[in-house]
Structures are given as structure tokens and as C-alpha cells.
Amino acid sequence: MIVAFSIAPSGGSDGTDSVHDAVAAAVKVVRDSGLPNQTDSMFTTIEGDWDEVFAVVKAATEAVGQFGSRVSLVLKADIRPGRTGEMTGKVERLEQAIIRAES
Known about the structure:
Largest sheet: 4 strands, antiparallel
Distance between the termini: 33 Å
CATH architecture: 2-Layer Sandwich
Strand content: 15-25%
CATH topology: Alpha-Beta Plaits
Helix content: 40-55%
Order of helices and strands: EHEEHEH
């Protein structure tokens, strides 16, 4: 499965709207997991089986929870049993389709 998720704290005591330290804590959890992952400006995407992926999402959420009294989690999942390598495979197929369309 592939899961794209975004986690943000709220209710922090410092009065700023910056969440980069909290996001960095979450991304560290994801990267330390060893599962295939990618982070962009809006989401972190991770690939693995159900239990692996959701254990990482839970741990990342708990890491962000240290930065505020509330945590917001947005999650989108693509569940395709028996498939691996889809995080890159889907993009490769998209790029091939674009090339075919331009020909």
C-alpha cells in the first residue's frame, strides 16, 4: 500500500504558525523506518504493508504531538494487495503516457 499523509500540531505555546520542527520530527520517524518514502512541500508518502505503514504513521503522529496539544492528520491510501514498488512505478507509467501522448 501507499499512504500519503500530512501531520501538523496546533495549540503550541510559542505563538508562531511555523510547524517545520514538528514536521522534521515526523519525517525523521518515517526515514528511520527504512520503508520507501518521499517528502514534498505538502505530504510525506510511504510504501509498505498495512501494519508497517500504519505503525510509522502512528509513531510520526506521536512525534508531532510533542509540539502541541492537538494534532491534525490528513491521510490518503492506495491499497493494492500484492503490489510493491508502486511509489515509483506509478510515476514511471505516468511519464510514459505523457511521452506517448506527445508523439
